[in-house]
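chain below, 101 aa
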Amino acid sequence: MSEKITVLNPACSSTMVERVPLTPRNFSSLENKTIFMIDIGWGGPTAGYDVFDVMTEWFTENIPSVKSVLVRKKGGFGEDDPELWTRVKAEGDAAILGISC
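prediction:
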């Protein structure tokens, strides 16, 4: 008698979610802008910092008037951080959320 095994079908059984377009750009240049680089904590407590450090160096060399602010979001990557979002809205012109490993 042969054994039976159960397998799962990897095919998507539901429809795709509705896509939302990216926010329109509000400015054509990053000159004199403040960019928050936000580590969301995936991959470890400082996983994104190596990448953000390289990005900060690039801005320093290529657009020196850009101010980079490196911060870590509180909580896990899926948790909200209202205090940080309030700060970014008040002090920043743009934000890059990132992960790395």
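The chain has a mean pLDDT of 86. Helices lie at 49-62, 82-91.
thats it, cya
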